[in-house]
Amino acid sequence: MFAGLYGLFASAFTSLAPALIGQISIISQNGTRIGIQSAVISLAVLLGNPVGGQLIELYHKSFVGLQVFTGAAMLMSTCAFLLAKCKLGQGILSRA
Predict the structure, then answer these.
(1) Residue 46 counted as domain residue
(2) Is residue 70 part of a domain?
(3) pTM to 2 decimals?
(4) Angular region, 40: left φ>0, alpha ψ -120 to 50, beta rest
(5) Is 93 a residue whose pLDDT tops 60?
């Protein structure tokens, strides 16, 4: 059940980031901003596995530390998107 739900929502999480950037930026800046977003994600992907492994070892083969770390990282990225959306538009639900 977890694998099915993860597969359903993880692809949306991955594919919506460039669409959100395209929605909050000027068309001429889309490529630059999506490139910067991809560079930041590449660093997270590169460092995520070693950090995750160390958190699992630190918590004696328990995934709780890794789950908290991942949840906090996703919460921070959501806040960053909402902050950018509010700063550049007239609110969270605006089209600009």
Answers:
(1) yes
(2) yes
(3) 0.60
(4) alpha
(5) yes
- Indicate whether 70 pLDDT > 80: yes
User: What tokens were used for 11?
Assistant: 């692809």
Q: How far apart are CA 52 and CA 82, in angstroms?
A: 26
Task: Please indicate, yes or no, if residue 77 is contained in any of the structural domains.
Answer: yes
- Residue 2: helix, strand or coil by DSSP? helix
Count of domains in the chain?
1
How far CA 3 is from CA of 6, 9, 10, 39, in Å, comes to 5, 10, 10, 27
User: Which positions ≥6 away from 49 have C-beta within 8 Å?
Assistant: none
Q: What is the 3 state secondary structure string of 14-75? A: HHHHHHHHHHHCCHHHHHHHHHHHHHHHHHHHHHHHHHHHHHHHHCCCCCHHHHHHHHHHHH
Q: Whole-angstrom Cα distance, residue 15 to residue 86? A: 21
pLDDT mean across residues, the chain: 85
